[in-house]
Every structure is written in C-alpha cells, then in structure tokens.
C-alpha cells in the first residue's frame, strides 16, 4: 500500500470505530478515528488526504450534512457512507451529494475494503471506472417500460415493497425486475446502478 492510503473513520459509536480501525489496520491502511463529523471538521486541514468512511446516521452533523460541508469547503476527498438496510433513500441522497459509494450494514469486511481501495484508486479519475453517458443511455434503452419504472423507484431511494405497492405488483416481481435491471445495466451493486443513473441525469 502507498504511504498516503489513509482512511478516516467517522462514527459516533465507539465500538464501531474500534472495530473498523482494527479491520482497516490489518488491511494495511493508515487509520484515524473521529467520534463525530463535528470533531473531524474542527481539525480538518485544507488538504485532507485519503478517504473517509462515515455512518449516515449520527447526532449533530449527520452523514448527508457532513458531505455537504466537505464539498462546501472545497474538499474532494472520496467519502464512503455506511447505511442501515432501511436507509436506501439516505444512501441515494448521499450519492447525489457526492459520496463515492455506499454500503449497507451489516456488510462483509471484504466489501468495505474493496470499496475503500476503489475510492482511493479513483481519486484522480472520477467516473473513469464507469461507462460514460452515451454507453449508459444505450443500456437504459434496453430496459422494458416496467424495468425502467423499477429503476426510477430505486434511484428515488424507494424500497422494493414501496415500489411494488406503487406499481401494483408483488415485491417478488419487483425483485425479478430489479435483477434484470442490474444485469442489463452491468451494475455490480445498487450504488453502482445509482451512480450510472446520476451520470446520465447530470448530462440531461
């Protein structure tokens, strides 16, 4: 690992901080632990290195507001947001605010480590690992009307059950359409799917 592969863990739960700190240290990252977004911002220099892993739900400044304040101060450091399974809407909002990725808890250790490495590798080549707008648009055109409706629901941060209710279909049918959307779009995760949709949205 390069010497500047620093990971800032921002979480109000001390046990989570310690656990993540231990995990990332064993993966050869340099780690700094912060008890809150407020504490991080109070000590942040003009040139923050590495990447940030933060919980979306925190007292005081939550993960979404944290992202906004980082961007308002001109910090381009990649941020990975950890969300609960029921926080899809918050995760999508985080992506719209510029998060590099989001992962749902509980998560496999390797998923977090891979997300961090991807974020660090992509610091100077935003969106380079993802299809460009024209290619994404081409993939969107292969979706059926129902698949597009399901995609719109997902990008709006709606859970499967809500999408099913809105469309008058069963949650199981939504799951099938969701799997088809992921396959046709070449999305490796929900965050990847949301990111691609936002790239096209930004071009419109």
From TrEMBL:
InterPro entries: CheY-like_superfamily, Sig_transdc_resp-reg_C-effctor, Sig_transdc_resp-reg_receiver, Tscrpt_reg_LuxR_C, WH-like_DNA-bd_sf. Residues 6-120 form the Response regulatory domain. This is Response regulator receiver. One of its GO terms (biological process) is phosphorelay signal transduction system. Residues 136-201 form the HTH luxR-type domain. PANTHER family: DNA-BINDING TRANSCRIPTIONAL ACTIVATOR DEVR_DOSR. CDD domains: LuxR_C_like (cd06170), REC_FixJ (cd17537). SMART domains: HTH_LUXR, REC. The keyword Transcription regulation applies. It holds the Pfam family Response_reg. The modification 4-aspartylphosphate is found at residue 55. Keywords: DNA-binding, Phosphoprotein, Transcription, Transcription regulation, Two-component regulatory system. Signal peptide: none annotated.
């Amino acid at each position: 690992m390069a010497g500047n592969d620093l990971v800032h863990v921002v979480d109000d739960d001390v046990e989570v901080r310690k656990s993540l700190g231990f995990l990332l240290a064993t993966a050869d990252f340099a780690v700094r632990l912060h008890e809150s977004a407020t504490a991080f911002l109070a000590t942040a220099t003009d040139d923050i290195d590495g990447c940030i892993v933060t919980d979306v739900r925190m007292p005081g400044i939550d993960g979404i507001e944290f992202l906004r304040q980082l961007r308002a101060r001109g910090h381009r450091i990649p941020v990975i947001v950890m969300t609960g399974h029921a926080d899809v809407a918050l995760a999508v909002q985080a992506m719209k605010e510029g998060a590099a990725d989001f992962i749902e808890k509980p998560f496999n250790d390797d998923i977090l480590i891979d997300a961090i490495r991807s974020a660090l590798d992509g610091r100077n080549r935003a969106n380079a690992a993802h299809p460009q707008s024209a290619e994404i648009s081409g993939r969107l055109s292969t979706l059926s009307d129902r698949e597009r409706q399901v995609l719109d629901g997902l990008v709006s941060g709606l859970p499967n059950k809500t999408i099913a209710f809105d469309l008058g279909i069963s949650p199981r049918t939504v799951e099938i359409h969701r799997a088809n959307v992921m396959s046709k779009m070449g999305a490796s995760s929900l965050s990847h799917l949301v990111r691609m949709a936002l790239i096209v949205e930004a071009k419109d």
